[in-house]
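Researcher: Re-running this chain for the archive, since the previous output was lost when a drive failed. Same request as before.
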Amino acid sequence: MITIIDYDAGNMKSVEKALLHLGEEVQVTRRAEDILCADKVILPGVGNFGSAMGKLDEYGLTDVIRQVCEKGTPFLGICLGLQLLFEESAESPGVKGLGILPGKICRIPKASGLKIPHMGWNALHLPRTGRLFAGVPEGAYVYFVHSFYLQAADERMVAAETDYGVGIHASVEWGNVFACQFHPEKSGDLGLTILQNFAGLDKGTEGVG
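Model: Regenerated structure tokens:
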């Protein structure tokens, strides 16, 4: 069972649809007991960092997410779900993120010829062999929609990078915690491969806590 965390995020349905297409058993819930018992957990998200953290707090999900990550359950953050895993974001100064992974979220700088938000297909550079990217070739194109980007504090966790006027850490992997700034559920067959790889992960022996 793959559990998608429901905190009123914008892309829950598209993630659910992609997983059902792959033949996976899926539930969408904010019930703590269901999330803690899940085989795998996904935190989707589209929207504002501060508002999203407010929703996670309102629904009592911040500690639940930390517990899931600490006990070794495979966990995937998508788009805003990636950003929330880190410590802070320039989008919402003074609002603390989940702090599960070290790093910060920065605003994409303005540059000639580049539109913000970044909306469209960009090629990935894969600096190391990540478990999410088995069968995904160097230079694969995936779909992004964002105005803020990750600077991970430890480059050893970076599984994919891209460039949009600035180097962007597009995906991370640290223990049982995975995250993508891009939308695998909107990235065609390659995106489905990434989701399939996540669905096939075994539970880790220990978490990131």
